[in-house]
């Protein structure tokens, strides 16, 4: 095949998404760290699914339109660091094809793949070789070489696929940590699944390919429901949601026009597509105005009272997560004047979420350890906070990048404090001063997050070797500041030994947050042992309810 | 010859030997446990107070002295022609100042009373009264004494740590620091006094860290005022050990230009802070 049409390209992407989804567990298993979170395969698959879901917005075959939808979908749907990099890959891909309408030649595809790779490198502050970056780059280089030799679309994609395969196999030679763990790079493997899927999609439809695999294609992941906050008892009874498709749309204009018609408003999007959610007594007026801007689609209007959509249900549907007294001392009024500074935090577990709320956090995005939130969820969280500027606490190393990406997608000033653990987030909040500027707070919070040491106790999802430690699957492992430090068979014993590596003569406070699967009695027994061992420290125990991690401990 | 007398209230927490040595008179506030009312320092000792506070099911309250209480002390202390400098609890936190102002218009007009709002509490009032008494001994006239007093009030910085915000909150003296209330973590808030009111300064986890942070504030103040002689006082609510350690640090670091004064927080202030409080008052001379 010398050239591909838009409909072929669409099929290629659908097959790629399907292929990646089928293989995501294989990719997950490649994570170097044997901890049960931050799954690369899941993150990349969810990101790509969100991206191809956007393709359904058009029936047309215009290649530049398809790829720009793909780029935007992946941008909003990006989860985890690998998802963010993937979204940048598609951004570059769209850029490379922006002038292509009906048919893409081999040269066009090669240019797009080179552009993809360049965009990923630019997006990362310190590019590391031996990762998905390398795989994308070598695929792009091979595609370019094939195109220069006059290759058509098939040859170019074949070259890219072969180079990606070789690059993935090469990753352990480039990154010693992969070799030690005896794996190839997970993100690179994910990229390979995508190249593979795209190549297959050249000649086979999604249905054919799925049939060969014996598994029906899964419907792509639901778009994340708009999350929103501060639902007070409201007179605005119609929950109204729809999408505006058009040109030169401006979410700000939409916001300004409809804000006075209701509350709990969320308007996100860009010049081509705007997603609207509002609670209003005048859904007709909202629709009428928005219909004047473009085509409305996916319109849903629910009467929150008459239908059996009671408040609690609605709250659940919208992943609301709001306690009765949200934040003491910071009354939150959706229609009132915005406060100068709000805080969004990504927190695993309801217990920890309560602690974060009690420290003044306005909006909790649940997740972090089981599920990295998408960029869109973070964007919506930021937009739902009634504040002029917002600080995001990612509290997970795999969420920092998404938070940075979300920052670029909202209108208000946003600062990301790069907290890698929950205790770092708590420590940062200690120095938050509501009256200070965004900049001063960011500086103080970043300083403060360094004052705490974090330990985590979880189980190994696979056997591995870390330094001198031999770890079997299901062993209990203790991580000190993200590095495996202790192995054992009992969470309390591992936590106790882990603390020995973290506590020194300057330590004064030891906090123990116990997980959802850990009993309070066990946590208390641990704290008694710890208190006995470190009589000069204050030892505190809290119910964190975080999944997968028996204990999160901090020392300061 | 006409004399200048210095009078304060039981919120000043000055040790008895200082009161005696500098001839400073104290008008007591009253503390109320349920139906029982005690005059601070007269009918209830500090030790007994904290014992009862710990056991009390309800947080006790305080009551300002009545104008008549002031009139009695003023007329006892002063002769016609004398001047009284009456230095009291921040008017934003207590009606004591107001009572004193009322009393000043009720007494023998031959006695002049200058009522001063310390805009502070505990040894913040105490050291202000002490500065006044020393200025009197140094032979300053009324204006000279008041000028010295005003300088201390304007320049003083206060940092204090409480074990719990419960007492400040229940007694309605929490001011802007209410933003610190409600956290689920065991936080030792560091508070300050701003415009005579309690204001939040920092949230700190753990007592040791909180006291260390107070030390840092002293270091910072010294750096900001390298040319001025500094003095400090520490008051504590049943936490002499921590107060002494803080004092030792400040003296070892040669941050001060005179021996540091340590005072015990009495019932008047203790009702609002609870046991465990450590407060540092820094002022240049």
- Morphology of chain B: globular
Could you state the CATH homologous superfamily of the largest domain in chain A? DhaL domain
Please give the share of residues in helix of chain B.
25-40%
Count up the helices of chain A.
20
Strand segment count of chain B: 13
Q: Indicate the CATH architecture of the largest domain in chain A.
A: Alpha Horseshoe
What is the arithmetic mean of pLDDT of chain A? 87
Strand order of the largest sheet of chain B: 10-9-8-13-11-12
Uncertain stretches of 5 or more adjacent residues of chain B = none
Average pLDDT rating of chain B: 92
Oligomeric state of shown chains: heterodimer
In CATH terms, what is the fold-level topology of the largest domain in chain B?
Hypothetical Protein Tm841, Chain: A,domain 3
What is the overall shape of chain A?
Answer: globular
Total individual domains of chain B: 2
Number of helices of chain B: 10
CATH topology of the largest domain in chain A: Serine Threonine Protein Phosphatase 5, Tetratricopeptide repeat
Describe this structure as you would to a colleague.
The complex is a heterodimer of chains A (556) and B (285). Chain A has helices at residues 6-28, 40-55, 63-77, 80-96, 106-123, 132-148, 153-174, 176-181, 186-203, 206-213, 251-258, 283-291, 311-317, 350-358, 375-384, 400-408, 422-430, 438-449, 491-502, 520-533, and strands at 3-5, 103-105, 238-245, 262-269, 273-280, 295-303, 339-347, 363-366, 387-393, 414-416, 453-459, 464-466, 469-471, 476-480, 483-488, 509-514, 538-543, 551-555. Chain A is α+β, with helices and mostly antiparallel strands and 556 residues long. In chain A, α6 runs antiparallel to α7, α7 packs antiparallel against α9 and α17 (422-430) packs across α18 (438-449). Chain B has ten helices and 13 strands. The longest helix of chain B is centred in the C-terminal third of the chain and has 18 residues, at 207-224. Chain B is globular, with a radius of gyration of 18 Å. The relative contact order of chain B is 0.16. Classes of the chains: A alpha+beta (556), B alpha/beta (285). The interface between A and B is medium-sized, with 24 and 19 residues.
